[in-house]
């Protein structure tokens, strides 16, 4: 079982409740507490933790937080503990988070999640993984577009208009419009700025 656990949450009642539940279940485990991201960084630098249970909405948390914490302590397992779901959660999964539990779950579910994380190396509810995989695929135009569609996609994000694309590729204006509609549909976007944002995310 995990020997040293860091619980990072800005709500004292949650820190206390989770720590008491873990102590009751496992007994001989050392538990440290942090109330914000900066204190979390400091504790990971000073002590060797096996598991970090972290609220992703506490003060100081930003994109790349999980990546930075993994750089500080490569061996630590990071269990995201939050009621929040969205782009930041997907970002943290892509950065190497090892699990996610909703704050609405019971203490027994928390213990089950920790046990699963320890025995298998990860713990993610199926709906979270489906959402993450779907989002990842949506953000990769190369996987969803045909070769010609991707060629036009790249021209669109570079600022080429329909007429310029028509002349450059020697195709009919109506054909460009048809391809553009297909690209928008496949990538689930509504405008050229959305395409540009998607390309920036891919390059980032």
UniProtKB/TrEMBL annotation:
Residues 4-118 form the Response regulatory domain. SMART domains: HTH_LUXR (SM00421), REC (SM00448). The modification 4-aspartylphosphate is found at residue 55. GO terms for molecular function: DNA binding. It comes from the Bacteria. Keywords: DNA-binding, Phosphoprotein. SUPFAM superfamilies: C-terminal effector domain of the bipartite response regulators (SSF46894), CheY-like (SSF52172). GO terms for biological process: phosphorelay signal transduction system; regulation of DNA-templated transcription. Pfam families: GerE, Response_reg. InterPro entries: CheY-like_superfamily, NreC/VraR/RcsB-like_REC, Sig_transdc_resp-reg_C-effctor, Sig_transdc_resp-reg_receiver, Tscrpt_reg_LuxR_C, WalR-like. This is Oxygen regulatory protein NreC. It comes from Chryseobacterium hagamense. The gene is nreC_3.
